[in-house]
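Reagents: none. Just compute today. Membrane associated serine protease, rhomboid family.
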Amino acid sequence: MTQPDPRVGTAPVCPRHPDRVAYVRCQRCGRPTCPECQVPSAVGIHCVDCARSASSRRRGVRTALGGNVVADALVTKLLVGTCVVVYAVQMVYPALAGWFDFVPALAAGQPWRFLSTALLHASLLHLALNMWALWVLGNSLEPLLGRWRFTALTALSALGGSTAIYWLAAPTSPSWITGTVGASGAIFGLFAAVFVIQRRFGRDTSTIVGLLVINLVISVVGANISWQGHLGGFITGLLVSAIYAWAPRERRTAVGVWGTVGVAVALVGLAVARALLV
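Predicted 3D structure written out:
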C-alpha cells in the first residue's frame, strides 16, 4: 500500500482542491492556488474566486455615447422581422389594418393605434423602402446608442409621428377619418438622430442633409404620404437624440433615462390635450 508523504500535510494546499499542493499564491487574497485555479492577469496570478469577483465589479465597455457595446443590431432585426410578419398577416387578413392603423377620429378611445400603426404598411414597395431604411439606419445607430436607447428613440419617434398627425388633422377634414400606416415617422426620427450624432462629433453632415431634404420634399409633394407623421417623427428624433448625444459624460444614464421619460410624458400629454380639445 502506498503511504502518504508526511511533507504534504505541512505544505500549502489549494482551498478549492485540498488534495493538491500549491506553492503559487493569489496576488489579491494571498491564498495558495493550484494550476487549475490560476487565472493569469497583468499583475500576476489570481485565484478563480478573486478573478470572478473582479469581473463582476468591472463596468462594461461603453460606446462613445455611453451605450453598452452590443455584438449586433438585435432590436433592428426584430423590428424588421416583425414588420415583415405583420405585412404577411395583412395579406391574409386585410382587416388587420383597420384595427391597428392610426385614425385621428379613433385615437382617443383606442390609444394603441399611436404605436401599432408603425408596424403596418400599405404595399410591398412601402414595406421594402421602409425596411431598407430601418436596416441601414438601425445597423449604424443601435451599436452606437445601445439597445435601450435605440429602442426608445424608435418608439418615441413613431409616437411623435402619430401625435403630429393627431394635432394637424382637422376634425372637419377627410384626414380626420383617414387611416395612416407605416414606420416612416420612426425612420425620420432615426434620420434626425444620424444628423444630430454626426454634428455632435464634428463630422460632415452634407450627405444626411441631402437625404433629408429629398425625403421631406417627397413627403410634401407626393400623393398619399403623411408629411405630418414624417415631421413629427423627425422633430421627436431630433429632441431625443440630442438628449443622448449631449448628456454629460458622468451622468449619461440618468440624463438619458429621465430625458426619455420626459419626452414620453410630453407626447402623451399632447395627445391627451388634443383629445380634450376635440
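The beta strands are 38-41, 44-47.
Action item: order primers for follow-up constructs.
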